[in-house]
Design goal:
The chain is an alpha+beta fold. It contains nine helices and 15 strands. 31% of the residues are buried.
């Protein structure tokens, strides 16, 4: 009888590409993971992976066994789900990755509501403006706001993410509002390394603009604060400036010859046939939250 914990480790090892990454996802110590793998190899009587201090690769026997291991793990999950029933309360640790600004503005308040609705789910937010390898880091979901490139991950669209040209009333009173796209060259624009170009849709097609100003930051929150303070025009997502627009601290600028190009909010998660209930529930809750916020 194979140890299903060891079989699960092998499947996670294939996804993560490293024993440390698989161990993190299963909440095991590296030593415990190494022992599980050695035990599985002993039970099967073959070496499944070749390990050095710097790399890991599957042997031919390991590659031949891997599809069967994946089937065993998925069948176990399906069996447990059928026993617990769909009415069973979802539980366990949910690890979510997102950008700093989106995490602060959207996910942090959402998590409060989500955890109150699902008291058996624990949530760990990992916020960073760097692209995180969710498989290697043992994360359940990554929230990405972009034109999603080809990926080995499953991606589910959560919502559109319109972007806006924004300025404080004080700035517009002082400098006036740009009317056309080329007018931005005469205005003070607030730039960020996170959004190096401002992208617009025009009658002639997509146009990327490099803008300049006296203030630049590697944080969208800092750009927003500078915009509210009247330092210039910012290019931000609607979810980022929703409260400031509602209160009148920021004003949306409409150009006659161009529109800002929207992005899409995606939830990405490891490629699996069986998506845990806690993952599906969180993605649904995020979509509903964004729809309510408008």
């Amino acid at each position: 009888m194979l140890d299903l914990a060891a079989v699960t480790l092998l499947v996670e090892l294939a996804a993560a590409g490293s024993l440390a990454g698989a161990a993190r996802r299963l909440h095991l110590s590296p030593m415990a993971a190494s022992r599980l793998l050695a035990k599985l190899e002993q039970e099967l009587g073959v070496r499944l992976v070749q390990r050095t201090t710097r790399s890991l690769s599957f042997t031919d026997d390991g590659l031949a066994f891997l599809p069967h291991a994946q089937t065993l793990v998925e069948d176990q999950a399906a069996a447990l789900a059928s026993l617990r029933g769909r009415s069973a309360a979802p539980s366990g640790l949910l690890r979510v990755s997102a950008s700093l600004a989106f995490g602060r503005k959207v996910l942090a308040p959402l998590v409060v509501e989500f955890m109150q609705a699902h008291p058996r789910i624990e949530v760990e937010l990992q916020l960073s403006d760097k692209v995180v390898d969710i498989v290697a880091e043992g994360l359940d979901i990554g929230i990405r706001i972009a034109d999603l490139p080809d990926t080995s991950l499953i991606a589910r669209k959560v919502a559109d993410s319109p972007r806006l040209l924004l300025a404080a009333p004080a700035y517009l009173a002082r400098a006036g509002a740009p009317q056309r796209l080329d007018d931005l060259a005469a205005h003070t624009c607030l730039t960020s390394s996170i959004i190096p170009h401002w992208v617009f849709r025009t009658e002639s097609g997509r146009r990327r603009m490099s803008v300049r100003g006296r203030f630049s930051a590697n944080s969208l929150d800092a750009v927003q604060e500078a915009c509210v303070g009247g330092l210039g025009i910012a290019y931000l997502s609607h979810w980022h400036a929703r409260e400031e627009l509602a209160s009148g601290r920021l004003t949306d600028i409409a150009l006659v010859d161009a529109q800002t190009e929207p992005l899409t909010i995606w939830a990405v998660y490891p490629t699996r046939r069986l998506v845990p209930a806690k993952v599906r529930l969180f993605i649904d809750a995020l979509g509903a939250w964004l729809a309510r916020q408008g």
